Amino acid sequence: MSENKDQKFVYDFTEGNRDLKDLLGGKGANLAEMTNLGLPVPPGFTITTEACKVYLDSGTAPAELRAEVSAHLEALEAKMGKKLGQSDDPLLVSVRSGAKFSMPGMMDTVLNIGLSDESVTGLASQAGDERFAWDSYRRLIQMFGKTVLGVEGELFEDALEEAKAAKKVTVDTDLDAADLKKLVKHFKKIVAKEAGREFPQDPREQMDLAVEAVFNSWNTDRAKLYRRQERIPGDLGTAVNICSMVFGNLGPDSGTGVAFTRDPASGHQGVYGDYLQNAQGEDVVAGIRNTVPLADLEAIDKASYDQLMTIMETLETHYKDLCDIEFTIERGQLWMLQTRVGKRTAGAAFRIATQLVDQGLIDEAEALQRVNGAQLAQLMFPRFDDQAKTRLLGRGIAASPGAAVGKAVFDSYTAVKWSRSGEKVILIRRETNPDDLDGMIASEGILTSRGGKTSHAAVVARGMGKTCVCGAEELDVDTKRRRMTVGETVIEEGDVVSIDGSTGKVYLGEVPVVPSPVVEYFEGRMHAGADDADELVAAVHRIMAYADRVRRLRVRANADNAEDALRARRFGAQGIGLCRTEHMFLGERRELVERLILADTDEEREAALAALLPLQKKDFVELFEAMDGLPVTVRLLDPPLHEFLPDITELSVRVALAESRKDHNENDLRLLQAVHKLHEQNPMLGLRGVRLGLVIPGLFAMQVRAIAEAAAERKNAKGDPRAEIMVPLVGTVQELEIVREEADQVIRDIEAATGTSLRLTIGTMIELPRAALTAGQIAEAAQFFSFGTNDLTQTVWGFSRDDVEASFFTAYLEKGIFGVSPFETIDKDGVGALVRSAVEAGRATRPDLKLGVCGEHGGDPESVHFFHEVGLDYVSCSPFRIPVARLEAGRAAAESKGSDSR
User: Which EC main class describes this enzyme (predicted)?
Assistant: First the structure.
């Protein structure tokens, strides 16, 4: 039973609107909106997501639901002048899923509900077309058998192929009524054998079972996988739309199609979409028959084409965005079956956003919300080199852009298996279906020989940002023999192919790539090639300029040398948020650190420090020069100790072999004793960071001296060095106080010796739970905090990133314990709570405390919004992620401003 007896579970299309997506799902809300606009929508009603939630929670539908559905069905029958499944002139309905967020192909739909052995003859008589009626009936049994009764879909597909082969035809439209009657009989036998029951003849039973099947489809493996991929909450449920059927399979004056108000691949305005005569909607999205371009509809049925163009303009103006539309033409009458804000490629998103601003439909703030950092990151991936020598295999439809190279695989299982083994793969199918989702996710790109821009492969690939080429008819794909043939060329499973989702071209072998024009723009080199690329760069420039104007968060870079710093600056970095000095001690310098750690006497230690000092100073001089005028946060040495010591196993073997040969090496023996003494079972939680600086006298003082001397040298050369010294792994204020007292004295000495005023600030990383919990105390000694969310995540969760990601993270993601890895997007409830409390406590102690973050989360789009919300001053990330962080910081500010104004 539902908790609220007054709760309404069913809404007529005339009762809803597009703002009720939470309740009616996207499809139901938009069907209601189109009905309100006076567009030709077949009458129907929507069962709410709340009914689905009750069903999924309890295993049964709400007690009130049946009566509500009956009342709305009676009203629909009265409106249509016919009853569901009546024998002489039956009302038929579709039962279609519709969640709040678009999940193309992931949940279930059943068409032609109401047909039976008795009513099929009535439909044939009413329509004056026996073939149409039996075609509709075989479709119902096939969809119902697979979707509702769980019969393997290939059994129906194989039977259909056998019927076509027996008739010696290649398309189902060439089967006549007699052929389809036989097929219906065969389909019913398949159902009886595989499902253990006869196909239901009662139309209401058909409808009720179909509704339950749609509810259940919310929790299918493919739906859950898609939600995890797209980060859609799992507790939303799906609405169910029951709509009076209109038929596109009534002959050549009927058909079905999908249209876009703009090209979802490029964003360009024009006539885009697919149309298929004498077909139902599933034929288009399944890609089982190749469609014609939407523009061809003008010659086929000009009146319907002109009406569709007018409706498309109405919808785009009303929704102020690219609209994805499904329609059916029944004997010259146009019907609208769905509209939604359409999925688009990354490039299209930026172009469309700026186009809509120029048309006056949206403002710049809204344009900023229409794009995101993940899309910008996609635009920064390389593309194929136009000048490279290539071997063209064929050409299909450019469905989702990008340059993808990988080994050919012909089923999803192999794609996932090979991908997990580190192979890059291209999934090749005749057409994809929802069961291929895991393989599509695992692949670099998707290639199909059937389907168009609105096929399942194209729509899902665009949503995921995967490269996709569809409808490459020249390619003969044989999935059973695991090969693809193009003329005389045979591509076996494992052969490398390259696909270009921007041109639709398919190549044999690996094609080299070149930088993206968007990267060239960020590097300061505008692309000088195709106009299309220049247009994209212009759109990115406009949106980035607005993001930079409105954002509050500053964006810095994680960079350890001058080369990375200069690149980061070109990408828009406003300083360095993390310079990891341990990266400066690799190669030949590693031996000096080893000598320092293993030193037995003050003389040995001071000699090692003296050798390291000029090397460190040179590093900092170059870094301060590259980032002149911008802040540079230098983290003092923070390696786990084992990274600078000889491997204990290798050293033990070396000593043992020497002893067996009686060739003793006193230095190795001494070294082994020292390594044994310092050996740690868990070095990530051992002698590192501030602990190392306190245990090894002079280590941090040497680094501070190198920083101060480099800053003084740069300042005396008329530069503007802005160094910040960061102490790592502090867990208590006393540690920081000791280090700071020593550092302050070193800085004073350098200022006196060089006659300069350096104004160096000293702060700490907050990367331990205790540091976050005692942030108010630590702020008494720190002038800034930088949250090290990588280590903070490890220590809060109690696991090692290097170990757990390879061991159990996959299982945790599959089971839904994690929606996303906590190392990828910040865990707001745990790690985030510590960050928030540390911000509040730190600023309560020191109101001018500068706050930043320098973990990997600093470049993650969702995490950037969190850092804006809690009041950090900056985020820091790798140079390549800087544009993404800049864009998301702008989006966070615009979103926050919009929320405040509401």
Answer: transferase
Distance CA(128)–CA(134), nearest Å, equals 12
* From 52, 186, 323, 456, active-site residue: 456
> Does residue 884 sit in the same domain as residue 771?
yes
Residue 790 marked ligand-binding = yes
**For the stretch 14-41, what's the b/e string if a residue is b when 16 or more beta carbons lie within 10 angstroms of its beta carbon?**
ebbebebbebbbbbbbbbbbbbeeebeb
pLDDT, tens digit, for every residue of 243-275? 999 989 888 999 999 999 999 988 998 889 999
Range of the domain at 801: 551-640+680-893
Is 788 annotated for ligand binding?
yes
- The CA–CA distances, whole Å, from 652 to 313, 647, 649, 656, 819 equal 77, 9, 5, 6, 44
Tokens at residue 360, please? 């006056």
Residue 836 in marked binding region: no
Please count the structural domains in the chain: 4
Tell me if residue 854 is catalytic: yes
Is there a single domain that holds both residue 724 and residue 820? Answer: yes
Q: Which residue, of 214, 244, 274, is where some domain finishes?
A: 244
Cβ-based neighbour number of residue 769 at 10 Å: 16
What number is the average pLDDT over the span 433-437? 80
Q: Is residue 155 part of a domain?
A: yes
The answer to whether 556 and 574 are in contact (CB under 8 A) is yes
**Are residues 692 and 740 both part of a single domain?**
yes
In a shared domain, residues 16 and 50: yes
Q: What is the CATH number of the domain that holds 309?
A: 3.30.470.20
Residue 529 pLDDT grade (very low, low, confident, very high; cuts 50, 70, 90)? very low
Tell me which of 468, 470, 854, 877 is the catalytic residue.
854
3-state secondary structure 376-421: HHHHCCCEECCCCCCEEEEECEEEECCEEEEEEECCHHHHHHHHHC
Distances (CA, A) of 104 to 268, 285, 321, 594, 780: 23, 9, 19, 58, 54
Contact criterion met (CB below 8 Å) for 558 and 547: no
CB 445 within 8 A of CB 499: yes
520 is in an annotated binding site: no
* Single pTM value for the model: 0.80
Going by their DSSP bridges, the two strands 631-635 and 576-580 should be labelled as parallel
Q: Is residue 672 part of a domain?
A: no
Q: What is the CATH number of the domain that holds 401?
A: 3.50.30.10
Looking at residue 678, its pLDDT comes to: 63
Q: Which of 291, 283, 501 is nearest to 395 (CA)?
A: 501
Query: Where does 458-525 show beta strands of DSSP type E?
Result: 467-470, 476-478, 483-486, 489-492, 496-500, 505-508, 513-514
186 annotated active-site: no
Contact 108, 217 (CB under 8 A): yes
The answer to whether the CB of 665 falls within 8 A of the CB of 646 is no
Structure-token match 């809204």, residue found: 366
Task: Tell the burial category of 650 from Cβ atoms under 10 Å away from its Cβ (0-12, 13-18, 19+).
Answer: exposed
Is residue 283 assigned to a domain?
Answer: yes
